[in-house]
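Hi! If you just cloned this repository, the fastest way to understand the data is to look at a raw example. We've pasted two of them here, unedited. The first protein comes first, obviously.
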Amino acid sequence: MSVLNDYQDWKNFLSQRVDQAQSLGMDEEKIKDVAYQIGDYLAQDIDPKNEQERVLKDLWDAADEQEQRTMAGLMVKLVHDGNK
């Protein structure tokens, strides 16, 4: 089963990757940049698997690059703050 099939699984997966990146010394801006790249890839190449992913894709598609970067940063913050 893919982590993209369930929104909670996706959030858990992203949280683990953020934690891993931080433990390897990656700074917050680099993590946000990688999150933006992943978000762009998902929006362009992956069909949403659930309602939450569809909303995120629709928002991503409506946003300009700066807004997309903000969304990516918010996703990182969401999963990072959820671990506190």
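Ok, and the second one:
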Amino acid sequence: MGRILIAGEPGTAILPELAPIDGEVVIEKPGKGAFYATGLAEALQRKGIRQLVFAGVTTEVCVQTTMREANDRGYECLLAEEATESYFPEFKAAAIAMIRARGAIVGWTAHVDDILESIAHA
């Protein structure tokens, strides 16, 4: 079984058009979640960040795993629905339903346009 979606494996390079700018934090994760065995928690603590917006692939694996890790650490979590994807639409739908379940047990979800509008009016 291959190590898909793991830093350093085929298909995981940062696309040039999405390359980080100078000073931007880059987290290379060894597994599905971004908190496990990385400096993410420390980087967020240094900046006093308590609210996170999630995007990426795949919704039901890496994104949901990281949201669960963040939620367990007390972060407020929001999934940008159109900014995440899956190989299977039904898996994405199920992951979104799980995230929202029981009054946002893992976090909230919203459409990208609504998130951007909220930021613009903050």
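That's it. A detail worth noticing about the second one: The domain at 16-120 is CATH 3.40.50.850 (Rossmann fold).
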